């Protein structure tokens, strides 16, 4: 029996041959040489899922890389809080270096996931287990490609090798991921829904849509192009998901993210099973509480002496993003939000939340009140009024705790408020994104009317007004509310897609609030130095 190498070796040494050779060898190995003896496939597969947990739920994981590096999320330093040697500020303002603390964790985490998926494939898995592992491997490769532009990999025969791993460059990685996902879809052995919260045919189709839509940006991040055949396939895949799998838009937007979203959301293509217990069929619960703890003020819930503070007073959005929403008010802290407009802005009474703490999910601005309507103060006794104004470094004691509009995408679970077993399922792939991807592909294919029709159907479901026209917004001002890029921001904020969108739309290097025009090197993250030493087939990305 071969023993699995320690993770540091397996991460550094992942590798593969050419994409065509890889897929042929991988499938033949499963079919004709199953006795590779790597271990129990069920346990290895659960371990591969659990490799995702921290990166997708954690404060310094997916949200940091995909959302904080965009225009809509910022973590200001407040006195001594949230400084961390400037790491949070560098994400939003684009100033990271190869030794940024979170880069190592991201690279290693994706490597662990890919390594465990490959070990599953080498352990005599069933047909379903095999396609689950292939799907998870594709997820890891997609994010290697997205974040770092290089994909270390190993084929099944050499999954335990100590040789330096070959590395896929973008076109090779795209070809390999595409072939893998199309193979999963054509074999059709995975289930047709995300139950029990594992890989599925719809999830494979969703990831393939993401790959094809971002393909031109992965190949040329400074000047993305969009192939007509790719856009046609995005439309075909998306229309299939829209018509044949029973998904629909959830009537109340924040039900997609609530404590009861396992039952209330109609949009869950792939979600993480946070259900109030430590595990669900071997998949561990995640710390979904990070999503409200990292943004709310310490006094946002006056349950004194129980949780040691209602929040960590960090993550915020900026006025420019807030102002892209219909019904946003006049930008002053006490302005009234028009609750007849876009649900996604928030400001509405939300059962189980507002009556417990006074909080109204969404973009939280202005004076805060508890569940009894009493105004809340900060720790200095000042009125707790979240303001649109925010800076990368807050130094004024009178305002440093209250600057920045707060972002509550997941309404808190007050039964497990600051614990690991909150019941909000983390939305990974969501149906409304399918609609927006199809709309974008139509518009990039010249069918603006077809794209606009889909966007207006989505907006109607969210309570927003009908648009007469909608440009893509490629290379345009991110503050412009009348673009498809802005619509994607309103629908999908804080869900881990913003950086990809900004790069694909040619807007990532433009100035936005608290960031000037910056260097094209920031279109990719640098390879951590320890990985370059461990694997000479990796090359540092240009400019670092």
Structural overview:
This protein is globular. By secondary structure, the protein is mostly helical. The chain has helices at residues 7-12, 19-32, 41-51, 53-57, 62-67, 87-93, 101-121, 127-148, 170-187, 201-219, 228-244, 261-264, 290-293, 319-322, 354-357, 431-444, 448-461, 484-492, 498-504, 529-534, and strands spanning 77-78, 151-152, 167-168, 268-272, 279-280, 283-284, 316-317, 362-364, 366-367, 385-386, 393-394, 405-408, 426-430. It contains 20 helices and 13 strands. Strands 7-12-8 form a 3-stranded antiparallel beta sheet. Strands 1-11 form a two-stranded parallel sheet. It has a two-stranded antiparallel sheet with strand order 2-3.
Gyration radius, in Å: 23 Å
End-to-end C-alpha gap: 42 Å
By DSSP (H or I, 4+ residues per run), the number of helices equals 20
Instruction: Name the shape in a single word.
Output: globular
Helix content: 25-40%
Main beta-sheet annotation: 3 strands, antiparallel
Q: What class would the helix/strand composition place it in?
A: mainly alpha
Arithmetic mean of pLDDT: 91
Low-pLDDT sequence parts:
1-37
Determine the strand fraction and express it as a percent band. 5-15%
Number of strands: 13
- Major sheet strand order: 7-12-8
């Amino acid at each position: 029996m071969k023993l699995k190498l320690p993770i540091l070796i397996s991460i550094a040494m992942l590798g593969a041959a050419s994409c065509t050779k890889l897929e042929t060898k991988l499938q033949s190995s499963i079919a004709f040489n199953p006795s590779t003896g790597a271990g129990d496939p069920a346990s290895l597969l659960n371990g591969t899922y659990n490799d995702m947990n921290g990166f997708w739920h954690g404060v310094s994981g997916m949200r940091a890389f995909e959302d904080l590096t965009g225009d809509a999320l910022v973590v200001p330093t407040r006195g001594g809080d949230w400084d961390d040697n400037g790491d949070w500020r560098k994400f939003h303002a684009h100033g990271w270096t190869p030794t940024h603390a979170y880069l190592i964790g991201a690279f290693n985490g994706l490597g662990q996931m890919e390594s465990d998926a490959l070990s599953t494939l080498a352990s005599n898995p069933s047909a379903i287990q095999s396609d689950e592992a292939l799907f998870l491997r594709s997820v890891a490769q997609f994010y290697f490609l997205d974040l770092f532009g290089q994909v270390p990999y190993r084929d099944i025969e050499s999954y335990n090798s100590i040789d330096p791993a070959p590395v896929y460059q973008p076109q090779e990685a795209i070809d390999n991921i595409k072939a893998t996902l199309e193979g999963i879809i054509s074999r059709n052995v995975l289930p047709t829904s995300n139950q029990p919260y594992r890989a599925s045919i719809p999830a494979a189709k969703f990831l393939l849509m993401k790959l094809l839509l971002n393909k031109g940006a992965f190949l040329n991040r400074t000047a993305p192009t969009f192939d007509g055949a790719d856009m046609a396939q995005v439309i075909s895949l998306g229309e299939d998901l829209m018509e044949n799998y029973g998904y629909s838009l959830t009537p109340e937007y924040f039900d997609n993210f609530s404590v009861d979203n396992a039952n209330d959301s109609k949009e869950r293509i792939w979600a993480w099973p946070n259900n109030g217990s430590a595990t669900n069929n071997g998949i561990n619960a995640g710390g979904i509480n990070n999503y409200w703890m990292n943004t709310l003020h310490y006094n946002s819930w006056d349950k004194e002496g129980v949780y040691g503070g209602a929040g960590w007073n960090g993550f915020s959005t900026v006025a420019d993003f807030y102002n892209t929403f219909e019904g946003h008010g006049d930008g002053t802290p006490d302005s009234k939000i028009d609750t007849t407009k876009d649900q996604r802005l928030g400001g509405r009474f939300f059962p189980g939340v507002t009556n417990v703490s006074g909080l109204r999910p969404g973009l939280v601005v202005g004076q805060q009140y508890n569940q009894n309507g009493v105004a809340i103060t900060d720790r200095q006794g000042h009125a707790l009024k979240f303001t649109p104004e925010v800076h990368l470094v807050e130094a004024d004691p009178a305002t440093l705790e209250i600057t920045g509009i707060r972002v509550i995408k997941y309404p808190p679970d007050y039964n497990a408020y600051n614990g690991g077993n909150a019941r909000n399922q983390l939305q990974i792939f969501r149906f409304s994104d399918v609609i927006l991807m199809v709309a974008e592909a139509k518009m990039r294919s010249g069918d603006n009317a077809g794209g606009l029709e889909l966007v207006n159907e989505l907006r109607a479901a969210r309570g927003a007004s009908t648009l007469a026209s909608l440009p893509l917004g490629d290379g345009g001002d991110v503050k412009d509310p009348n673009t498809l890029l802005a619509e994607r921001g309103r629908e999908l904020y804080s869900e881990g897609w913003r950086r990809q969108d900004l790069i694909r739309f040619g807007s990532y290097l433009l100035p936005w609030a608290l960031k000037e025009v910056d260097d094209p090197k920031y279109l990719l993250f640098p390879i951590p130095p320890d990985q370059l030493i461990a694997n000479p087939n990796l090359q540092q990305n240009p400019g670092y």
